[in-house]
Specification:
Layout lengths: L18 E2 L3 E7 L3 H6 L14 E7 L5 E10 L2 E7 L3 H12 L5 E4 L4 E5 L7 E2 L8 E5 L8 H10 L4 H5 L27 H10 L4 E8 L9 E4 L2 E10 L2 E7 H10 L3 E3 L2 E5 L16
Antiparallel strand pairs: 1-7, 2-5, 2-6, 3-4, 4-5, 7-9, 8-9, 10-13, 10-15, 11-12, 11-14, 12-13, 14-15
């Protein structure tokens, strides 16, 4: 059944292999100006997406920090956006702030859920950030709930979560690896915060990156410092079992490698890995 006249590309999952992500929410940006409206605001090139195709993008502050990151799929009449559920109302409000005279409608889609799967299925798209993340889409029905399986995968791959790792107004796109995960276009026209992001890209000035970690013990709470000797080199973010993510200061990580210092978070040994998608240089301490 159509809702408010929206064209829909959602699915009715037939298999328990499709998992609902309860931490994600859905909103729609529709209307004749939808593509141009988003193109002038977000970090990636969404205007060229064909119906059914998906992309990854962020809406930044004018100072270039991530307010919201999200996945979006082109529809016949606009876009469906997959964002952190806790940030959805704030994102709708922010988009409304920029709407002015654009012929667009921005509204929540409570009739849809975000679902993920390991295998392709009708209505699902390959995750545009990284193929190893599997498939994703929108469904009017709920599959098995819970983020546990998905979170373990994304953490192992080094993929940050909107709410658990990035927050809002805290990180630049390079720090959350959006430049590595198809989340930033350096060839499209202007968007909010574009000058800062372009400058970081061309000058290579990203001092911090979110990186995957392995812990030799139980993970301390999120926010626990990661140290090399007496110097803090990063902060622990989300974790799953002995895997975690950390926001790491790259120059201090290199200093620790040269000094042969062990990395610890609350006395738990930490090993840093370069994610498979990374195209940036990284100097990592050798495992003891």
């Amino acid at each position: 059944m159509e809702r408010h006249g929206h064209a829909r590309m959602s699915i009715n999952p037939p298999s328990s292999a499709i998992e609902t992500l309860p931490g994600r929410g859905v909103l729609a940006v529709t209307g004749v100006d939808a593509a141009g409206f988003l193109q002038g605001l977000v970090t990636s090139d969404v205007e060229g997406l064909q119906p059914g195709a998906a992309g990854y993008a962020a809406l930044l502050t004018p100072q270039g920090k991530i307010l919201f990151d999200f996945l979006l799929q082109r529809q016949e009449d606009g876009f469906l956006i997959d964002c952190a559920a806790a940030q959805r109302e704030a994102l709708i409000k922010r988009l409304g702030f920029y709407k002015l005279r654009a012929k667009v409608t921005v509204e929540p889609r409570d009739d849809l859920n975000v679902v993920v799967a390991d295998e392709p299925a009708a209505g699902l798209y390959a995750d545009p950030r990284l193929a190893d993340l599997g498939y994703r889409g929108f469904s009017a029905q709920k599959g098995p709930g819970g983020n546990r399986t998905y979170d373990a995968r994304r953490i192992g791959l080094g993929i940050a979560d909107s709410e658990a790792d990035m927050g809002s107004g805290e990180l630049f796109p390079h720090e959350a690896n959006l430049d590595q995960l198809n989340g930033v276009s350096f060839t499209k026209g202007c968007y909010v915060g574009q000058e800062v992001v372009s400058r970081m890209e061309h000058r290579g000035t990203a001092r911090n990156r979110i990186l995957p970690l392995k812990l030799d013990g139980a993970a301390p709470p999120k926010g626990t410092p990661i140290r090399a000797g007496e110097k803090q080199i990063g902060t622990l973010l989300s974790s799953a079992g002995d895997r975690a993510l950390g926001l790491i200061r790259l120059d201090r990580l290199a200093d620790a490698a040269r000094a042969g210092d062990r990395l610890l978070t609350d006395s738990v040994p930490v090993h840093v890995f370069k994610p498979a998608f990374a195209r940036f240089d990284l100097v990592i301490p050798q495992a003891a």
